[in-house]
Amino acid sequence: MKLVASLILLAAPAAAMAASAPGTATINHGTQLPDKVIVGQNFWTCAGSACSGPGDDRRVAVERACRDLAKRIGAVEAITVGSTVLDETQLADCNKAARTKS
């Protein structure tokens, strides 16, 4: 039991560290972006054709962030969180969730 508790305590800082990388996304579909958008559990700010905010830099989390952006504001051209960059195939998969222009 003490071993389990110790492992949980050791894992907690690693999980917290993963959620603090800076992220940026390019959304260039010619429509006005909102000033703020919720990505995961974080607020990202948008200006021009880009949004930025904190995020988790694990690949699966960046893919999830991309889908969040695509659902809320439209197709994502590029996204980077920390050192994780989605490639063309991952972006195409992400953009399947993209909101269509009204």
Care to describe what's here?
Keywords: Signal. By secondary structure, the chain is α+β, with helices and mostly antiparallel strands. It has one domain. Helix content is about 40%, strand content about 25%. It is built from three helices and six strands. A six-stranded antiparallel β-sheet has the order 2-3-4-1-5-6, with helices on one face. The relative contact order is 0.19.
Question: Helices and strands in order, then pairings?
Answer:
Blueprint: H1 2-18, E1 21-26, E2 36-39, E3 42-47, E4 50-55, H2 59-73, E5 78-81, E6 84-85, H3 88-94
Antiparallel strand pairs: 1-4, 1-5, 2-3, 3-4, 5-6
* Count of helical regions: 3
Task: Give the overall average pLDDT.
Answer: 85
Radius of gyration: 16 Å
Unreliable segments (pLDDT under 50, ≥5 consecutive)? none
Roughly how much helix do the residues carry, as a percent range?
25-40%
Largest sheet descriptor? 6 strands, antiparallel
Strand content: 25-35%
Q: What descriptive keywords fit this protein?
A:
single chain; CC_3452-like; signal; 102 residues; DUF8200; globular; 27% strand
Summary?
Residues 1-18 form the signal peptide. The protein has helices at 2-18, 59-73, 88-94, and strands at residues 21-26, 36-39, 42-47, 50-55, 78-81, 84-85. The chain is an alpha+beta fold and 102 residues long.
